[in-house]
Structures are given as structure tokens and as C-alpha cells.
Amino acid sequence: MLTIRSHRPALRKLVALGAAGLGMVLVPTVSATPASADPAPASSAAIPFGDGYMGAGYLTDGDTFAPDSRQLDLTPERSSSIQATTLPGIDVSHYQGSINWSSVKSAGIKFAYIKATESTTYKDPNFNANYLNAYNAKVIRGAYHFARPNLSSGAAQATYFAGHGGAWSRDNLTLPGMLDLEGGCYGKSASAMQSWILDFYNTYKAKTGRDVVIYTSASWWNSCTGGWSGMSARSPLFTAHWTSAASPTIPKGFPYWTFWQYTDSGSVGGISGAVDRDRFNGDATRLLALANNT
């Protein structure tokens, strides 16, 4: 077995392309880890401005407290009980390049989250094409904002996000916007981070009428918000836990997960190279209800 490191987007794509040429599938392996303490996430300076994406800070945030041990596996993904009760999805940014969304739909993908913005000045260069083409292919999709809490207020970033791709409409194909929280605590205390998140949430809801989805890992949330329960009744949880286990580890303060990013090394028709694979905790009627706020 060949061990790879895949925390850099360009390297992930090159490795995945090589694996595809050999007929291989990239899967995560699981390591037993202590549950006693959460390490302090690494500095957000490790993620250059504009380069944030879902999972960019996962390894440095230390979700599993163990070295990255994903490997090449010659066997395809097998069905499981969790797959029987969840829906498959992906999340993408400009790192995936040009995407054939009709092929993504044909591959069985039911939903997608697409990067829109960072801070108050950056918009992903592929967002407009991805968002429109996913819509035309009838893939239920939502936009996401990569948070930079050290650069401006939550209200300012929510306003920028809502005006540059994060808006919502009841059209059977649009999920509520998502706030991507990872990559260190940005120099903020737990109470200051709680206030920043609530500021973003309140502003986004005032502008769109929707509760923002929160993407994070157990380690980031437990370390940077102190395991805050203040968003559990407000925001659906999109938990990041790269594992082949039947269920993910979720942050303290949340009773259950709505979405789960289970690997950063997936393969999907219509996308060249590695792509994050996700699951929705429910059936098609529940996904549509979330999209339409019904």
C-alpha cells in the first residue's frame, strides 16, 4: 500500500489523477485516538487568503489527533447501512477546475455545496459557472463562505456573502448558505468567536430568511468556541470527519449532524481529480424540505 499526504489541493489532484489512471479509489483509514483533550488548532496564516475551501484546515486543526494516513486502495467503495439511509453529495471550489455537472448528476450525486466567498473582497472565480450549471443539471446546491474572523466582523462577511452568491430562493434546488469554520482560532477567545459566529448568523438570517448551515470539525469547534451549544437550535451542522466509520464524530454542543464530509479523496464522474464526498442525514424528501424551508 502506498501512503500519501494530500493536504495541498494541487497535490491532492495530481495524486487522484494518477490513481484514476490505475483504476484505484482513494479512501481514508481510521486510527484510534484519545478523546481526552483537544489540541489548539494551528494558525489560520497557514491558509493563504483566497485559498480556503472545505477541509483546508482539517489536518492542522487536528480532528483525529493523528497523522494523515489515507492510502490507495484497489477495492471500490462498498455499500453500507449508513449509505442506505443517507444521500450522496460533494463540495467544490475552483480547485476542481471545470466540472461537467450533467455527469455529476448522472453519477448519482444529490446535492453539492459550492464555494462562493471569503471575507469581504474575494469571490471564487468558478462560483458563477458552478452554481448555474449545477442548477441547470438539477443538482440541489448551496453556496458557502470561508470565514476569516480576523479580517472583519461577522455581519460584514455575512453581508458580502449574501450579496455575492449566498442568497436563497424557494426553487427546489437551493440550499441555505453555509459558513465554513476551520483553520485555527484567528486569535480570538472562545467568547469572542461565539459573538462573531452569532453576528454572522443574525445578519445572514435577516438578509435571506434562512438559518445558515455551519461546517466545522469537532476539534475546531471544541477548541475555538469551547464546545458552545448556542448554535445547536439555530444552525444545521455540517461535520467534517474523514473516516470510514459508520458515523462521524460531531462537535460538543450539537445533538446530531445534518451533513457529513467523510473524505477529501473521493472520485465522481464529471470531475477530474479528487473531490470531497459528503452525505445528507435523511432521504430525498428531507433534503428538499431543507432546501425549500418547509
Question: How would you describe this structure in keywords?
Answer:
single chain, alpha/beta, 8-stranded mixed beta barrel, 294 residues, 9 helices, two-stranded antiparallel ribbon, disordered N terminus
**Count the helices. How many?**
9
What percent of the residues sit in helical stretches (DSSP H or I)?
25-40%
How many individual β-strands? 11
Widest beta sheet: strand line-up: 3-4-6-7-8-9-10-11
Order of helices and strands: HEHEHEHEEHEHEHEHEEEH
Rg from Cα:
18 Å
Q: What would the average pLDDT be, to the nearest integer?
A: 84
What's the overall geometry?
globular
> How much beta, percentage-wise?
15-25%
Separation of termini? Answer: 47 Å
**Major pleated sheet:** 8 strands, mixed, barrel
Low-confidence stretches: 1-42, 65-81
Structural class: alpha/beta
